[in-house]
Amino acid sequence: MAPKPLNWHRGLGTLPVALLILGLFVVLVLMRDAVENSETLSRAFLPLLSVVLAGLAVLAVLVVVNIVKLVRRYRRQAAGSRLTARIVVLFSLISLLPVGAVYYFSLGFLLRGIDSWFDVEIGRAMQDALVLNQASLDLNQRLLVKISEQLLAGIEDRSATAIALSLNDLRRRAGAIELTVYGASGQVLGTANEDPTQLVPNQAEREIHQSARAGTNYVGLESRQGNELVVRTLVQDPRGRPMLMQAIFPTSARISELSERLEDAYNRYTELAYLRQSLKLSFSLTLSLVLAFGLMAALIAAFHTARRLVAPIADIARATRSISDGDYEQQITLPRHDDELTFLVASFNAMSRRIAKARDAATRSRQAVETQRNYLETILGRLSSGVVAFDEAQRLRTANPAALLILALDLDEDPEPVTLERLERTNPWLTPWTETVRRHLAEAQPWRAEVTLQRDETSQTLMCRGSPLPLPDATQRGHVVVFDDISSLIVAQRNAAWAEVARRLAHEIKNPLTPIQLSAERLRHKLLAKADENDARLIERATGTIIQQVEAMKTMVNDFSDYAKSPTLKAEPLVFDQLAREVLDLYRSAGVPALRIALGAPEIQVRGDPLRLRQVIHNLIKNAQEALEGCANAEIGVSTELVQAEDTPCLQFLVADNGPGFAPQLLDRLFEPYVTTKAKGTGLGLAIVKKIIEEHGGMIGVENRNSGALIRVRIPVWQATATAVHGREQYKPL
């Protein structure tokens, strides 16, 4: 495969960092130009400063990240870390010492040069001139106040007409722009303006009027339209009359020009004096940023140079660790120069290729073993026989799904090793099987045994076969056990045997029964009339017993015959609830007490033989009646419902009673022939019922409840109606 570099540096690439450094250099040059121009300084200095600080922060982060990585590598004693540290320290010293010296002398020279640009005496003279100008304006304004008082005192007639006629003359003599006289309540008594079209006087602010009425005359310099400076006065009457006069006087054009020039000159000087400190700060900050920029750039260059120098060593160390971790595809880029280090890298690449080839061969072998194991697991998973394997310490190593199903084990989430002892402890009913396996494990030879397990109220028969099994470790041996659940096979064989016995009994016994019955009836007919009273009673009783027993034997023979023969079913679609209701109505009419009926599948059809299914219902109701003989509050419950058995909808028929129930030891044998709990029963009733249900593709089960027994019959729903009822919500999962 193509060689690939294994650089230990994982920061930004060289090109982005170089572009960042170049960009910062350009921004520093722009900052220098901004410092030289005060107008540009006020607009561009702060944005440029922000850009530089952000760039230096990025460089600082890069430097810190590289330093942290270097310290971590140094503490781990990684290859090349010591050399990298020495190079970085050397570059730092080389860059910091000369740059620091230049920074120190340049900063001192710059600050002293800026201070020499300004003379302290000039600043004081500018302030004195400004004070002098202000004093001159104050003197002129006081003079105008006196003139305004004299004008107001010269008004003799206070009528509005007299004041209006005299004000314009007074305005021209005083050189005022506007004169206005106010009464005691602030009403305008008269006004005169140099502009005849200006009929409304130029009112002063309300606060000025209130201050003047309170006894304080007002004088102030204001600007009009066109930036023209005027002096406004508002004075009281010196003669004590309740009048105020407002006068607006123009200022001298020369005085206005000089005042404006003086103010501009002072503002310019103040700006320059302010910029002196800003220039000092700006130049100092710029030099400091240049120093930081140089140091950061030197450190970045130091890390880059060190990385280029120690990259081959670091790559070899990293590739060696990767190979030790199982990654055999490592190939290092050869250095550009041809020396011993290049030879070392080439040798390492050749070694890694050989290791990769060996790894590939081992992987192929492991895949072949894994394929074989999956093949074996697939076969074991499809077997109906249970297969388990134990090691020498009796620990369970392998168990296929059939084994877990037969033994009813759940080992998916069990982290602890499973041993025979633990199986006995957690599943006591497996003790016969575990003891059999343990006994044959010690013999270390093939064996075969039949084991019967008793779990709850059911029994299970296993046919077991075992053989020694060699393990991957030659010094140890295991054992494999194969077993089948032959309970159903034994039941089928037993049923077949009983059917053959029933057939022969029916054949051998039925033939002589009729002659025996006829002979007994003939004897009674011939001898009864000829015998005396005592003999007649004896003959009557004896022949009656013979005939009664012959009828009982005929009934038993008929049961044998029904169990033994396999009549052809006359199957047809039928509504089971309707069939059951017809049978149950017979029992109701016969006066069967406490018969509770709940038929819950009125529309569900099954395919079956009506006569055989009637026989099933009759047998189950009759068995329940016989079980309740002598019981108080006897009660028989009959119900139907639709249930879902795996993927097949079934009609479920339930018959329950509140009698004594079945003996626990007989629960798993109730459907065998000649097994009964009744003194006069033949033991064929439930066997015949089971046979009929199985002929219809159904199943039957029995269980004891808290009070009484429950028999459950399930028959598949007819295919034609299965789709129609598939979505019914009354399905009850098993």
Short summary:
With 734 residues, this protein is an alpha+beta fold. It contains 17 helices and 18 strands.
Distance N terminus to C terminus?
60 Å
Helix coverage percent: 55-70%
Look at the structure and give the mean pLDDT: 76
Query: How many separate domains?
Result: 5
Radius of gyration: 61 Å
The CATH topology of the largest domain corresponds to Heat Shock Protein 90
> In terms of structural class, how would the helical and strand content be classed?
alpha+beta
Content of β-strand: 15-25%
Helical run tally: 17
Catalytic activity: ATP + protein L-histidine = ADP + protein N-phospho-L-histidine
Transmembrane segments: 12-32, 44-71, 83-105
Protein name: histidine kinase
Subcellular location: Membrane
Structure in words:
With 734 residues, the chain is of the alpha+beta class. It has 5 domains: 14-117 and 271-324, no CATH class; 144-251, PAS domain (Beta-Lactamase); 383-484, PAS domain (Beta-Lactamase), CATH 3.30.450.20; 492-564; 572-733, Heat Shock Protein 90 (2-Layer Sandwich), CATH 3.30.565.10. Helices cover 57% and strands 16% of the residues. It is built from 17 helices and 18 strands. It has helices at 14-36, 38-75, 81-116, 120-153, 160-174, 206-213, 253-324, 340-382, 401-407, 420-426, 431-441, 487-527, 533-564, 576-589, 610-627, 685-695, 719-725, and strands at residues 178-182, 188-193, 218-223, 229-236, 244-250, 386-390, 396-399, 447-455, 458-470, 477-485, 572-575, 595-599, 605-608, 636-645, 648-657, 699-704, 709-716, 732-733. The strands form 4 sheets. Strands 12, 14, 15, 16, 17 and 18 form a 6-stranded mixed beta sheet that branches. The two termini are 60 Å apart. The model is unreliable at 1-12 and 726-734 (pLDDT under 50). It holds the Pfam family HisKA. This is histidine kinase. Residues 307-360 form the HAMP domain. Keywords: ATP-binding, Kinase, Membrane, Nucleotide-binding, Phosphoprotein, Transferase, Transmembrane, Transmembrane helix, Two-component regulatory system.
